[in-house]
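Illustration 12: NAD(P)H-dependent oxidoreductase.
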Amino acid sequence: MMTKLGIIVGSLRESSFSQQWADNLADMFPGDWDKSFLEIGDLPLYNEDFDAEGANPPSEYNRFRKEMSEVDAVLFVTPEYNRSMPATIKNALDVGSRPYGDSVWDGKPALVASHSISGISGFGANHSIRQSLVFLNMPVLQQPEVYLANSQDLLEDGKINNEGTQDFLQSVVDTYVDFAKKFL
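Figure caption equivalent — predicted structure in token form:
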């Protein structure tokens, strides 16, 4: 059976480190995992008026909700902005969780990977995402945690240049795959 993995990248910057890490992680999943990157940069800021009875939500909301409803599991790859998650991820979480009672997130196993060009490794972003995922009823892989410090030094031409980091991330993906199977 094919497992559908939705990958959400927190940075919108072209050639972002987040995208590079997400590309590397996606390549580590087994062949029976169908991976797709879900666009979140075009989502209008969440406004409950769009979900009121008789309202017509933006087409981007409908597209994103449909795509998310079709995935089995979710990988979040994110930088840290001001000790928290990027607004793009928070907005995607909000859009996907509404209208109330129709959350597309419910029960989907998640993996959160954060990074930073500093030594803090995106710790604040990682945990602010996890806090929201608890409310959204998403089981999250607790261990091993993924915090990539000085991430620009671990990539060369978009690929991981450190065998220890490569091995660690492969072990994380393997652990997550086993974890996710419990919920699928």
